[in-house]
UniProtKB/TrEMBL annotation:
Keywords: Cell membrane, Membrane, Transmembrane, Transmembrane helix. InterPro entries: ABC-2_transporter_component, ABC2_TM. GO terms for cellular component: plasma membrane. Residues 25-376 form the ABC-2 type transporter transmembrane domain. GO terms for molecular function: ABC-type transporter activity. This is ABC transporter permease protein. Pfam families: ABC2_membrane_3. The chain crosses the membrane at residues 21-44, 174-195, 229-250, 270-296, 302-323, 358-379. It is a multi-pass membrane protein.
Length: 409
């Protein structure tokens, strides 16, 4: 009977919120915002598209030939022997600029209405060309030139706590942690309020009394947590699907290519640990919110009740971006082991090799034990308060309730 009633509450909570406009507004708003920004940038780029500028090389056919072969230079290259005609073409805006040489020095002349040229690439190519010219004058062989220009290769190795080399994926791991810190805070902020409103609405309208007459507090407590949890999982799954579709539809997008290259070096063990930590922490906050929400009398007290919970999440969110360079910070080290704060602090410390894998899994074990204990004792608090209407300050009543938590009924 318990499991049947539990599933009914989970299903009711899930479907009721799934049909609401507010839920889908939250889910689709970030995706629609990204699409809107992308559309604006696309329209602006379409409007700003101009022909590739033309640059004339005066009295330097060899240099002109060399620059024409360089595909990375976003310029049309022309060669001319007539400086007067070239100046006239620039004045008539037929060309964007021209390049001359005098005693080994280059002079680039641009037109008044010329858009920014690819000066950096041009400067690099001119340096390369000058180097080749000087190498030829010194009668250096092609092999010697290649040897001189060969770049230095640096092989990087990252050692674990046992002194063994492992893959250098520190930047990818930390990048994932930074992204997850934002996502976790976003999810917690919304779903903490959603659970609080769900319980407070039923309590303030006296529906809770009818529900508890037909079932048990445990059914209502875990049923609402399960229903809201399924909504959060669906929310995350939709974003993963949309992200996968974006990668398939826009394989040549520069931003998506950079993101793919960045996260391709992720350590699988780190990824599994981080996802488990995030999942456990989300349920921790949901249980804590359900406990706090059971103490409110009506919907007007919901904001007062959830503010301490969201503030708790804000601490971890803010400190995550300060972990880099704080290898021996005592506060961050301690908080990375504490539930409600370790969800992004410990993954960040692990990504930067400030914490060992053993310490990371220890923090996860502490979070799991805390979740079990909080669910057990939280159910007792929920049972005591869900049909009790406190008078006076909500914080004082909540503090008194927590003091009586371990007393016998």
């Amino acid at each position: 009977m318990f499991w049947k009633q539990l599933w009914l509450v989970i299903h009711h909570t899930f479907t009721q919120r799934l049909k609401s406009v507010g839920y889908w507004s939250l889910v689709l708003m970030p995706a629609l915002s990204v699409l809107a920004v992308a559309a604006v940038f696309f329209i602006l780029n379409m409007g700003n598209q101009q022909k590739t500028p033309t640059m004339t090389i005066v009295n330097q056919p060899a240099l002109s030939h060399y620059l024409k072969e360089q595909k990375q230079l976003d310029l049309h290259i022309k060669s001319s022997d007539d400086l007067t005609a070239t100046k006239k073409s620039l004045h008539q805006e037929k060309i964007a600029a021209y390049l001359t040489t005098n005693k080994g020095r280059y002079q680039l002349i641009k037109g008044a209405k010329t858009e920014d040229l690819d000066d950096q690439h041009l400067r690099t190519l001119l340096q390369d060309y000058t180097f080749l010219q000087r190498a030829t004058a010194l009668h250096l062989s092609p092999q010697q030139v290649t040897h001189l220009t060969e770049p230095v290769t640096i092989d990087t190795q990252v050692l674990n706590n046992q002194g063994q080399a492992k893959k250098d994926n520190q930047s990818a791991n930390y990048a994932l942690t930074s992204v997850l810190a934002i996502v976790i805070f976003f999810f917690l902020t919304y779903y903490v309020g959603l659970i609080a409103n769900e319980i407070a609405n039923e309590k303030s309208s006296r529906i809770m009394e009818i529900l508890l007459a037909a079932s048990s507090p445990a059914v209502q407590f875990f049923g609402k947590l399960g229903g809201i949890g399924l909504l959060a999982l669906l929310h995350a799954s939709i974003y993963l699907i949309l992200g996968s579709i974006a990668f398939m539809c826009f394989p040549n997008n520069e931003f998506l290519i950079r993101a793919k290259n960045q996260f391709s070096n992720l350590d699988p063990t780190f990824l599994i640990f981080t996802l488990l930590m995030v999942l456990i922490t989300i349920f921790l906050y949901m249980v804590l919110t359900a406990i706090v929400a059971a103490m409110v009398n009506d919907l007007s007290q919901v904001q007062q009740a959830v503010t301490p919970v969201t503030t708790l999440a804000l601490v971890s969110y803010a400190l995550t971006f300060m972990v880099n360079g704080q290898a021996h910070n005592g506060l961050i080290t301690v908080l990375s082991f504490l539930p409600f704060e370790s969800q992004s602090l410990m993954p960040a410390r692990l990504a930067l090799n400030y914490a060992s894998p053993l310490q990371a899994w220890l923090s996860l074990a502490i979070a799991v034990i805390t979740l079990v204990l909080l669910a057990y004792y939280g159910l007792r608090l929920y049972t005591r308060n869900v049909l009790t209407y406190q008078e006076g300050n909500l914080s004082k009543a909540a503090f008194a309730t927590f003091l009586n938590l371990f007393k016998k009924n």
